[in-house]
Specification:
The complex is a heterodimer.
Chain A lengths: L6 E2 L6 H16 L7 E4 L1 H21 L5 H16 L5 H14 L6 E7 L15 E5 L2 H13 L4 H10 L6 E7 L5 E6 L10 E8 L3 H4 L6 E6 L5 E5 L5 E5 L4 E5 L2 H4 L6 H9 L1 H7 L5 E7 L3 E8 L15 H10 L3
Helix pairs in contact in A: 2-3, 3-5
Chain B lengths: L37 H4 L2 E3 L13 H18 L5 E9 L2 E8 L5 H17 L1 H21 L12 H4 L6 H44 L5 H8 L8 H15 L3 H6 L3 H9 L2 H17 L22 H16 L8 H17 L6 H46 L14 H17 L6 H20 L6 E2 L9 H7 L3 H9 L6 E3 L1 E4 L2 E8 L14 E4 L15 E4 L7 H9 L3 E3 L4 H4 L5 E5 L4 E4 L6
The chains are: A alpha+beta, B alpha+beta.
């Protein structure tokens, strides 16, 4: 079997081969951010093993009226069934088993996520339109999750999204990554989203997984880190009555132990660690302001980076033309 | 109980019993006259920053100097667009002030004039400032040259041989005239630079804050301060003298003898000691001519300098010498301060959009330039000039007493400055005609006795922080800049002390420290400060520098983030909360307190707030 079908996440630099998600993670590694280890099942594997089912599904969807919900659901179901029924050759499965063992020698849970070409782009947000599988441990589960990811190209949401956006259906790559059993998680923003102040990085964090924070369901702790002096400029600790965690098979909500409820979900050392990664983060986002999602399990892991879009696109206020005009305006302006 | 959203009107503030005639202590044009009219209807706030105590009549000149000069430079010379001067009135011995706004319709024209005139100063700052120092030193020398020795029985022969043509009596009158007028002149120079300096400094603050809305004021201050200015010289000179004592190996001798005169005599007996005393003498004037009061320096005739209290400077030198013997360094970490200043400035500069960098550079350069003046004028005027003025005033008082014109030297300070002049005319005429006795002592005796009682009565009554109906918002830039008074602080006054255990001020220097409080209101109290104490004081003086090495943190009632306290604490890495207004009153020595210099709060952890 040709081992080149699978590749380490760090090497996944060609978007056309590995998809946007894998490419993003590999960029993060190259920029010096700690990323949970993983490997990629690239587009080439999809094309080698699932080409027939993909072509049949694509043709069926193209021939159907996907603006009609019932029709869309029916063709989608048939197309997904075709991809789920793909039989993978034994040597490829053996290869997957070897890579899985290297990644998780103790049977640690991994996450399997789709990485479509055209997903996670800077301008088109396809995030969440395809599926992710958490807590995969065996090679059988991995094969199952892999074909489910492939099949998710024809999920009802994905078909509807493509119909709306006019994007073509493209072959899919899949990322297999160690699952971070997060003690706490959150978002690091390289500027203060509330004021646009670029001299302060803002960290928002919660206990457990970041999802309730990212989706706006939970009020996070907030920390402002002065990028010049390194000092913590503000620190708002929220009451965090519940949190989400991976319970072995899926994500579940739990009550926060009383003693942790109103204590900070990140320690000083982790805040300092986060701050030390800001230059790498900036490199990763092409030099401009950016947001990153992170998780902490005793070590810090970055799971996603995006360029900041609101303040970066605002033009700076034009400064007064001369020093004396600035002074006149400062003494005359009422505060 | 509903809170009144208005302060008492001046005529509603009760006069303490025994002080009914308080107006007779001050110039008639300077007091609230108790009549209806604009004075009674206005909003006034107490100038506790410069004049926290009941003024004695002679000391009234201190506020009159800035009343006129600040006004003239703002209103008539630089045409500061929105602000005329700051008006003053005295009530029950305390100074109240109110800023006078420029008429709205004049602001545009004033802005044009201001830009033209202030630019001339900004563009030629270094040259004009060099001239300024010369002008002030000329004033200083002129005051030092006045002489108030008792008038002689017979004039010196030189009056004839050098045909000076004037008597010592005339010269005494002329010298007193010169003394007062020179002090008045100095204040012209004080405001020649101060407000345009503040304006440039404020502009840099506002610019940086517009770029970085969340920035801490301390970070902006760090970019500007840390400069080598003369205000640090007194402390540096004490350190230098300590080093010299160690290298001459006479520090043991200095440590053993605590009476200054005995020590100097003892030292002069050896070559090494003699060298040291000569150096001390060359240094003490001017570098120890600094006020040791806690609070705005030079405000009262009772102000004393390090020069007049050599035991304080010697104490500091002893403690520095001991540190040196232990192998510790005593130098101000100037290189580190500058490196930190540059690191912070470069850090923020690097985060700016390219197109605003030139503006940042220009405003920062100007802010640093003007800041030297803002710091140094305090040494030249508040310390040197006032020290010389009060020193000469005390010399005159002692002479008048010796001549029998006054019963006691202190009596002179219960006379208004015009009344002192009247006294001189009487004394000089009496001396000139050879009459047995002038009328001054008899004339002033009952008046001074009454005035002493009035001052004592006035001191018993606390005064409201403000008078009249406050404006909806304090928008006047001078009030905010110089006094730190904002809409919020007026609200706090109206609400009274919030009580509780938390006192709010301004974040002066970052960090959090818990420790025992040591309330120090005068320089003598510094001797009680133990290692790790938290100093709670009205304000600090550069003469207090040696104590900072022992402190855990500092709380000062007066001052903003560029005050002496805040700057020195940042340099020593001590947390500081400044501008707490009433911490000295609410905190008791020995109470455990928590100072949060990042948030600007002081929490009393033990016992109740007073």
């Amino acid at each position: 079997m040709d081992a080149s079908y699978l590749e380490a996440l760090a090497d996944a630099s060609d978007t056309a081969c590995v998809g946007g998600k894998a490419r993003g993670l590999s960029d993060m590694i190259r920029c010096g951010l700690p990323v949970p280890p993983g490997f990629v099942v690239p587009v080439a594997a999809f094309e080698r093993f699932a080409a027939d089912a993909f072509e049949r599904g694509t043709a069926a969807v193209a021939g159907a009226d996907t603006t009609d919900a019932a029709t869309r659901v029916a063709v989608g179901e048939r197309a997904r069934a075709g991809l789920r029924d793909v039989t993978l050759p034994d040597d490829f499965v053996a290869d997957l088993a070897r890579w899985l063992w290297k990644l998780a020698p103790e049977g640690e849970p991994v996450a399997v996520r789709s990485s479509a070409v055209g997903e996670d782009g800077a301008t088109t947000s396809f995030a969440g339109e395809h599926d992710s599988y958490l807590g995969v441990r065996t090679v059988d589960e991995l094969v199952d999750a892999l074909t489910r990811c492939w099949a998710s190209l024809f999920s009802d949401r994905a078909i509807a999204y493509r119909a709306r956006s006019g994007l073509p259906v493209a072959p899919m790559s899949v990322v297999v990554q160690r699952l971070v059993l997060a003690e706490s998680a959150g978002v690091l923003m390289s500027l203060n989203p509330a004021t646009g102040d670029r001299s302060v990085a803002v960290v928002e964090s919660v206990w457990g997984l970041a999802e309730p924070l990212v989706s706006g369901r939970a009020t996070p702790d907030r920390f402002g880190i002065d990028l010049v002096t390194g000092g913590v400029r503000f620190r708002e600790i929220a009451d965090k009555p519940t949190f989400e965690r991976f319970d072995g098979s899926g994500v579940a909500e739990a009550a926060t132990p009383r003693e942790r409820m109103s204590s900070p979900s990140l320690g000083e050392a982790t805040l300092a660690d986060l701050r030390s990664y800001l230059p790498a983060l900036q490199r990763c986002a092409g030099g401009g302001p950016s947001d990153a999602e992170f998780a902490y399990d005793g070590s810090l892991w970055f799971v996603q980076v995006r360029p900041e879009t609101y303040w970066s696109q605002r033009t700076a206020t034009v400064p007064p033309p001369s020093v004396i005009d600035a002074i006149v305006s400062a003494v005359t302006t009422k505060r | 109980m509903t809170k009144s959203r208005q302060f008492p009107r001046p005529d509603e503030v009760p006069v303490p019993s025994g002080a009914e005639d308080w107006r007779s202590l001050y110039n008639w044009y300077h007091v609230f006259d108790g009549q209806p009219g604009p004075d009674a209807d206005g909003f006034w706030f107490q100038d506790a920053l410069h004049h926290p105590d009941v003024m004695r009549p002679y000391d009234e000149i201190q506020c009159e100097c800035w009343w006129q000069a600040l006004g003239a430079f703002n209103t008539r010379i630089f045409a500061v667009p929105p602000a005329f001067g700051v008006d003053q009135r005295i009530l029950n011995g305390y100074l109240y002030v109110t800023p006078v706004p420029a008429p709205q319709e004049d602001i545009e024209a004033r802005a044009e004039l201001f830009a033209e005139r202030a630019s001339h100063y900004y563009d030629n700052w270094d040259d004009i400032y060099a001239e300024w120092k010369t002008k002030v030193v000329v004033c200083l020398d002129r005051i030092k040259a006045t002489s108030f020795a008792p008038l002689p029985v017979v004039e010196d022969a030189s009056v004839v041989t050098e045909h000076t043509g004037v008597s010592s009596g005339y010269r005494m009158i002329a010298d007193y005239d010169q003394l007062v007028l020179t002090m008045y002149e100095t204040y012209q120079y004080h405001f020649e630079f101060l407000n345009i300096g503040y304006a440039a400094y404020l502009t840099f603050f506002e610019f940086v804050r517009a770029q970085f809305p969340d920035i801490e004021e301390q970070s902006i201050a760090t970019m500007v301060s840390g400069l080598w200015v003369d205000l640090y010289r007194p402390d540096d000179e004490m350190k230098r003298l300590a080093k010299l004592a160690v290298s001459l190996d006479i520090d043991d001798q200095i440590a053993a003898q605590t009476v200054p005169e005995a020590l100097f005599t003892q030292l002069r007996a050896s070559a090494a000691g003699g060298e040291w005393v000569a150096d001390w003498e060359a240094t003490a004037d001017p570098w120890f001519m600094i006020n040791t009061d806690s609070g705005h320096p030079g405000g009262y005739s009772g102000s004393r300098t390090l020069f007049e209290q050599p035991e304080l400077a010697l104490d500091a030198i002893r403690s520095y010498a001991a540190q040196l013997r232990r192998g510790e360094t005593v130098d101000r970490p100037t290189a580190e301060i500058i490196a930190n200043r540059d690191r912070v400035s470069d850090g923020y500069r690097g985060l700016l959009a390219d197109e605003v960098v030139p503006q940042f550079d220009a405003l920062l350069a100007l802010a640093r330039k003007v800041f030297v003046y803002i710091e140094e004028h305090v040494l030249y005027i508040e310390h040197w000039m006032w020290a010389a003025f009060w020193g000469k005033s005390r010399e005159l008082a002692a002479t008048l007493t010796e001549m029998g014109v006054l019963d006691e030297a202190e009596d002179m300070f219960y006379l208004r400055r015009y009344e002192v002049m009247e006294t001189l005319y009487d004394a000089v005429a009496t001396w000139s005609v050879g009459s047995a006795r002038g009328r001054s002592a008899d004339h002033w005796r009952p008046i001074v006795a009454k005035r002493r009682a009035i001052v004592a009565a006035l001191e018993t009554q606390p005064m409201p922080p403000a008078l009249g109906r406050p404006p909806e918002a304090v928008t006047e830039p001078l009030t905010q800049m110089l006094w730190g008074i904002t809409t919020q602080s007026v609200e706090q006054w109206l609400d009274g002390d919030a009580g509780g255990n938390v006192i709010t001020g301004k974040a002066g220097s970052p960090g959090v420290v818990v420790g025992p409080a040591r309330v120090v209101t005068d320089v003598a109290g510094l001797a009680d400060v133990a290692d790790g104490d938290i100093l709670v004081c009205p304000a600090t003086s550069p003469a207090w520098s040696p104590v900072f090495a022992r402190l855990g943190a500092t709380v000062s009632d007066i001052g903003g983030i560029m005050s002496h306290t805040a700057i020195v604490c940042r340099e020593y890495g001590l947390p500081a909360v400044v501008g707490t207004q009433n911490a000295c009153r609410r905190i008791k020595t020995g109470q455990l307190i928590r100072v949060d210099g990042t948030a600007g709060t002081v929490t009393i952890l033990e016992g109740d707030a007073g």
